[in-house]
Design brief:
mainly alpha, 7 helices, 78% helix, elongated
Amino acid sequence: MTRHLTDIAPRKAALIAGFGYLLIFVLAIFANFFVREQLVDPDDAAATFANVADSEFLFRLGLVAFLIVFVADVVIAWALYIVFRGVNTSVSLLAAWFRLVYTAFLGVALIFFFVVLQLASGAAYLAAFEQGALEAQAMLSLEAFDYAWLIGLVSFGLHLMLLGYLMLSSGVAWRVLGLLLTVAGAAYIFDTLAHALLADYTDYASVFLLIVAVPSVVAELTFAVWLLARGGRPQEALA
């Protein structure tokens, strides 16, 4: 009498994925730009440490936002597999796995947020460290968060490129969306490789931000709209 979760209709799965995408957009913008960017000064470890200590609740809200994104991405990976398995089951499954690998790296990265909170907590055992050492360790932990996430974004880029392939192969009218997703995925991979290869990456950080942000925002927001409006419908050849 009980139906399996995998029996869910592609249209319903598309709606779940679409609303999930909108949720993570809002939460990621908040966690990145209203928390992380506001509190972290990459050139001043002391100021960053003081900001986190003085705005601990805001930092915790950012952590919770990232944790919700972590869970939502798992659900989206599952829902997108259902939406696209009618196009190509093997590729759809591979795309889901790549998104799950990215999500796992995000979860690992969030460990460093907890470490920063602990360093700023004033716990008695931290008296063994000088203030400068605590500040440096907090900054290193925040950078470790960035690098763990960057590695995960390689997997996420491959996920987007596979989604682009599925869109192009599905026979839907929105073929341009498939190309946008492919470009966005390649941009994520290119940016991570640039971090690894360029010792002076920070000198070109604004350029790379544009290379990643423009195609990813356009492609993923358009994809979310498509999921909500058309995804999973029989006439889209995805059922």
